[in-house]
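Report of the visiting student (M.T.), summer placement. My assignment was to run the structure pipeline on a short list of targets and document each run. The first record concerns Peptide deformylase.
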Amino acid sequence: MAQQDTDQQRAGVLPVDDEGYVIDTEDCEEREAAYRERGTSRPITVVGNPVLHKECRDVTEFDDELRKLVDDMFASQRTAEGVGLAANQIGVDLKVFVYDCPDDEGVRHVGVVCNPKLVELPAEKRRLDDSNEGCLSVPTAYAPLARPDYAEVTGQDEWGNPIKVRGTGYFARCLQHETDHLYGYLYIDRLSKRERKEALRQMAENEPRYPVVAND
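After the run finished, the structure tokens were exported:
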């Protein structure tokens, strides 16, 4: 019904701060639960699946089908106990990712970004953090990877509104990692050949804790 649709739309649009960045730290539990409970969990695609190794298509239709995808992505992310999930990780060739991720201060961030683009950082903001990184599409494998400890992403929400998201520490890593996915890059693609081989060995020797799509 029309009133219900209006309420849902209002709930999906995040407020912004004085600098125009989304405020994604409020009502996190309620918002994530609402997405997840509407969605259906799907299995995760893993390294080797072609959809993970090419740039995804831009989102051009901000419709009910897209919002159903977002709901399913939150449900899938929760099942896999992840902090971020790109659409191609559940086999969908579209530039959209969701996140439910803490920063290094333990502040929780929940949101959706369509058509993300990383903002080029000035030199004074490029402090590298070489913490371990993992990926739901490379299950059970981890490796240190240097990334800037601050990130900004521009894009749109699931209603087509322009948005800006920024984060520090672990959340900055998440924003960079998920944006990479939508342009066809896995974190292991940024490792040395030896480190990549070691990550794939870890994956081969362990069982994922969530459903995955086997590569033929």
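DSSP finds five helices and eleven strands in the chain. Residues 64-80 form the longest helix (17 residues). I thank the supervising group for their guidance throughout the placement.
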